[in-house]
């Protein structure tokens, strides 16, 4: 998931002054399942190279409930864990250190992607991130196998929140969306992870394809505000936008609404919960904001920093 960083900073500046304090609200919500789902975004993007096994290991180390990741379909119909539908020169390079160009993953085989080093270049947006030189991209099958091995050591079972990614310009055809979704569902079934996986997407076509292929897999509708919507919600308005996304999620029979955190108020959570829909906002990298959301009664929190979520989780369990 991605969102313009402008609102991340602007919203955090205004929130402490203008947005309702969930803890003091007359509406008191609690998670539908009775406990908070702590999710490491792209594994642990703030700490290790995103969507790589070292990032997932980091999330496992901090005992996240759920590993959140992105998937893209390659030319040879492999599901690779990667955020963008194109190769990303900001975070990946050739093995010899030379730069790469943006290329659609639809035009590349998984073998061609394997020559990339996606661990040596630190993401400049995350100064705490530690590089892991030589890190390669992995398929969804690789991921499940590695998790299985890690679970034996950690003595903990993990849940999965897997996003389907498509070109930002909306050019993906219905057939591509369906093919990607069906292959992903098949991989989940093969890994025997049906009961602990959610498939999420900004492309709402994904959800009915999941429900058709395997209705036992949970679905999550992702929502990001425009500049205008984000600004209005930052200064305390935007209830119409909130109502719209709740109605959209209900029409799609989604199990989860996963909104940018600005959407979340006690009233918003209550409305979702009244329809038995969980609320799991993204991407929350500020301790004060995590606690505000917990006060709203959210069902989970997605963060680039599993260490931050662990700190909050531990402090709230005392």
Structural class by helix and strand composition: alpha/beta
- Just name the CATH architecture: Alpha-Beta Barrel
Radius of gyration: 19 Å
> Can you say what the CATH homologous superfamily is?
Phosphatidylinositol (PI) phosphodiesterase
Helix content: 25-40%
What's the CATH first level? Alpha Beta
Annotation, overall tally of beta strands: 11
The name CATH uses for the topology is TIM Barrel
Span of the ends, CA to CA: 32 Å
Shape: globular
Number of domains: 1
Strand content: 5-15%
Largest sheet data: 9 strands, mixed
Overall pLDDT:
94
Query: What sequence of helices (H) and strands (E) makes up the elements?
Result: HEHEEEHEHEHEHEHHEHEHEH
Give the low-pLDDT segments: 2-6
Q: How many separate helices? A: 11
